[in-house]
Amino acid sequence: MEVKETKEVLTALFHLKLAYQEAMEDGSFDWTDATKFFPVIKPIITAVKNIDLVPQELNELNETEIDDLAHSIGVMFECDKLDIEKIKEALNVLNVLKDFIVNKL
C-alpha cells in the first residue's frame, strides 16, 4: 500500500505551519493575517477527504514506505540526514509496537 493519504495529511500540516509562521512574523495575529491561511484550504480539503485511510497506511508500512515517508517529512520540515534517520527509527518503533499489541490481543 502507498502512503499517499498520510503524505497529504502531512502536506496540509506543513502548509498550515507555513501560514502560521507567516502570520506571526510581526509577533501578533489579526484579521489581515487570515488571508495567509487561504492557500491552506485546498491541501486541508484534500487531506481530510481520505483521512480515514491514514491509520491503515501507517499500520501496513513496509521498509520502502518508511524510507519514503521519512524522506518526505524530512524535506517538508527541512530536516538533516540525522533527523531523517530518527524519523525512520520512530516509524520502525511504531511498527514494532503495533505488531506487539496485535500479537497480544
Strand content: under 5%
Question: For the residues shown, what is the average pLDDT?
Answer: 89
Unreliable stretches (pLDDT < 50, length at least 5) are none
How many DSSP H or I helices?
A: 5
Please tell me about this protein's structure:
With 105 residues, the protein is an all-alpha fold. The mean pLDDT is 89. It has helices at residues 4-23, 41-49, 54-59, 63-76, 81-104. The protein has 5 helices and no strands. Helix 1 packs antiparallel against helix 2 (41-49) and helix 4 packs across helix 5 (81-104).
Offer a quick outline of the entry.
This protein is mainly alpha-helical and 105 residues long. The chain contains five helices and no strands.
What descriptors fit this protein?
single chain; 105 residues; mainly alpha; 0% strand
SSE layout and pairings?
Blueprint: H1 4-23, H2 41-49, H3 54-59, H4 63-76, H5 81-104
Helix pairs in contact: 1-2, 1-4, 4-5
